[in-house]
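Tutorial handout. Part one gives the primary structure; part two gives the three-dimensional structure as tokens.
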Amino acid sequence: MIVVHHLNNSRSQRVLWMLEELGVPYEIKHYQRNRETMLAPPELLAVHPLGKSPVITDGELTLAESGAIIEYLATHYGEGRLLPPAGSPERLRYVYWLHFAEGSAMPPLLLKLIFKRVANAPAPFFVRPIARAISNRVLNTFVEPQIKRQLSYMEGELAKSTWFAGENFSAADIQMSFPLEGAAARGGLDASYPKLTAFLQRIHARPAYQKALEKGGPYALLS
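Part two.
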């Protein structure tokens, strides 16, 4: 049976959602972040050398990286579900958004989180203004404009189809959920992006999403 090594408030939440959508039996092993550092606990190092989540074990297989896990589940357990037909334009869009989620959408959101923490971190009084000035400059001149550009781009793409790969819900939408949840929490995704807002409302209404949330525990992205 598949075991999901599930870290609270992390990318592994969408692995639970994927499994619920497919109706595949699985077990959850819960891990909690350190409340001060917000890092994963050292116990995860016993599962994977990087000590991060998501990680699944399936028999002798240990697999990390959310995109790789999502694709593995789709191809090995999906039986054609959540995966557009091979060779179709939708399949190409599926592959694109599957990789876009972590390759393009997440980095500026993580940078925003990091530089916000740098600006507010404890420091000697004479260092604090310098740290804040540098952080704010990076945020205002690079990070925030990148986030806005990406949100506008994604908004425009969802004007072309109901879901990211086309008119049918796919695993790419599951993969894209995390950066969009993050953008809604701290990246400026609001009602001024009606297509993205509607996307989040649609996924929140899915029974499999709700069931995964019940099993995975409270889901509040870091801010």
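Part three, for discussion. The two ends are 34 Å apart (CA to CA). The chain is about 55% helix and 10% strand.
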